[in-house]
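tool=predict chain=A
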Amino acid sequence: MEIIDLSSELYHRMPVHPAHQPFIMSVWDDHDFVFTSGNTTMSYKSMSLSLSDHSGTHVDAPLHFDSRSGALSIDQVPLENFYTEGICLDLSHVPLRHCITVSEMELALSLSGVIVKSGVCPSGSVPVRLIVHRYSPTFPK
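tool=predict ok
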């Protein structure tokens, strides 16, 4: 199976949802402090990050939408759930603030060339490419 990294680049003041805190990234240490231990001299660079759990590419845990006891937090979702077969639906032609219709999704599926058997619910992923990706210089084409 080919594994495709769908994550986008994280960078200082990257676009985030208006209801969430900004993504802040800054240099904490930048090889300014050099220290020696025995015969070894070294320095290091480290970054400081302040972000919402909805910054960049992310997965909403069931707990995000489900207030019931027992809803899984993201650290409880099995890692193998994130490695799936999948198709990408291209809806990048749909304008901003447009409610995507079922028929638009069906057309995108048809144009993808993937045939989904009726009544079969595949255990795959369906990333959707939207117009907002035009504003992200690092989103995979």
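The two ends are 20 Å apart (CA to CA). Helices lie at 62-65, 102-112.
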